[in-house]
Amino acid sequence: MPSYDDIPTKTLIDIRRAWIAEAAPVLLMKRLDKLASKIWTTALEYAHNLVETERAELEHAWLEAVGLADQLAAELDTARATVDRQAAQLAADAETIGQLREALRTQEQALAAALYRANRTETALLALQARVEQIANLLTDKIAQQDDKTQADERNHQDRKIGRFNNRRYGNPP
Fold it and tell me: By the 8 A CB rule, do 172 and 166 touch?
């Protein structure tokens, strides 16, 4: 029996062409159609199941994403409200600080004016104390002079009294 390798290439090509040109039997074609139909149906069911699974997964992921977006929106609203409150508090604090600074400036000016008046008052007081000492010294001198005069007048008066007494006693009439 000749081997396959012994058959000339041209003859093999002719045999192949003859097979290809020959129509497949109807029974085989029906069975292949049924098989192809089952394979196609199975493929469609598999694809449909795959699409449904992916759709369910996507829907679940979408719902989860929507939930997270809602949660983030709520957190963002809360954060914005907090920022707004803090900004309002900051503005109020800044205004209070401005008022306190103005009050401090006013108090510093009042203190400076009070220190100026106290300094002038102290200077005037020192001048008055010096004047009082001067007047006290003058009065002390005047009193001393007056005392001296009074003592001198007293002595003169005593001397006159004694002189009168002596005159009366010893006979000199006044």
Answer: yes
Residue 13: CB atoms within 10 Å: 10
DSSP single-letter state for residue 150: H
Determine how many CB atoms are found less than 10 A away from the CB of residue 96.
10
**What b-and-e string marks burial along 138-151, b requiring 16 or more CB atoms within 10 Å of the CB?**
eeeeeeeeeeeeee
Predicted TM-score of the model (pTM) = 0.42
Token match 């006159």: residue? Answer: 160
Contact by Cβ (8 Å): 152, 159: no
Q: Angle at the Cα of 156 (from 151 to 138), degrees rounded to 5? A: 30
Give pLDDT tens digits for 75-102. Answer: 999 999 999 999 999 999 999 999 999 9
Query: So where are the chain's domains?
Result: 31-167
Which of 58-64's residues contact partners 24+ apart within 8 Å by CB, and which partners?
A: none
